[in-house]
Amino acid sequence: xxxxxxxxxxxxxxxxxxxxxxxxxxxxxxxxxxxxxxxxxxxxxxxxxxxxxxxxxxxxxxxxxxxxxxxxxxxxxxxxxxxxxxxxxxxxxxxxxxxxxxxxxxxxxxxxxxxxxxxxxxxxxxxxxxxxxxxxxxxxxxxxxxxxxxxxxxxxxxxxxxxxxxxxxxxxxxxxxxxxxxxxxxxxxxxxxxxxxxxxxxxxxxxxxxxxxxxxxxxxxxxxxxxxxxxxxxxxxxxxxxxxxxxxxxxxxxxxxxxxxxxxxxxxxxxxxxxxxxxxxxxxxxxxxxxxxxxxxxxxxxxxxxxxxxxxxxxxxxxxxxxxxxxxxxxxxxxxxxxxxxxxxxxxxxxxxxxxxxxxxxxxxxxxxxxxxxxxxxxxxxxxxxxxxxxxxxxxxxxxxxxxxxxxxxxxxxxxxxxxxxxxxxxxxxxxxxxxxxxxxxxxxxxxxxxxxxxxxxxxxxxxx
Length: 465
Known about the structure:
The protein is α/β, with parallel strands linked by helices. The chain is built from 16 helices and 20 strands.
């Protein structure tokens, strides 16, 4: 729903076109390492063994994927489809409930769930009673403390009374409202009509339920956008008083998402124009809005837990982007969902029909994944700290993993061009991204990605800027 498969937010950006030309390469978003293009076939037996090996008492997070929408926005990069009939939605929900039981059996009662994130697609595209039933099954199968966070992504135009009642019964504590852009010309170009009044009404309705933690999603780099238009959108967004605002760059990848081919290339801003739009949004959010910049693409009120996590070095990055969730294990539920387990990453089949068939037959639906090596774990930690803190001490990180720092230091030496351009600092041990280098932080993190050039036969990532 939110189109989160995009390039990084650009802050305090340079206008130097030569830097953009030199460094605006296709690099991963680094919500995992190794990244998804390097996953290999993974059998249910392997995945089941990984689940069974989860230590007792471990903290868990659950991600519930709903691959349905009531409308398909042309910019969207999510695994979703427009489904208006109720029957396939109910069948899918029934299999979600079965999968929860299958996973709980494999885990054998280990751990407790501290965070549940419903994403999509549009989770509220499910019938209201189905959402309630899935959440009830989670609570029945797993231990959940009273203060566990239950977050959900919402399309404000499809939030009816039944969905609101369901959210209350589910115990939702945080909601993320997809906005993207309020400009009518832009909305026409991306096939997403949504008025400010509809969005404000949704926010007020959610707060009326006691869901006081609200997020907003904005996107820059969309067709027909200009610095003036995004200034108006960002200014109007302030009136919604969200706790967090995510600002993503549109990722134009029509070779992967065929519907994006309906967006004419000539309507898209170039890299310099994207920078200008991003800077305008930043100025509004950090200036009149009073938000604190978090990582690359989030802003939060100073009192919000995400801003606090950034200041204490405890910010994390997962498949949902930046998060305060410190649980070391994430279990994915539903078609295409990805989990992070102690042994490695596991992704369910993206095909809804294949997912339904597997679960209905009593099998897990894992299709791909990767077992993590010691070097993977070390490099994952290095990349996460660069992405979250914009800095990392390479010898200290190697020592924490009982590893030889020499390979990291050799890779770190590759930052020399970035240092020469004022985008980074490196004293031979500590690497730090400068304010000027923020738009290129994914490029810098990529220095430590030994998989990036393996089997690169087709573009798999969006431009960095």
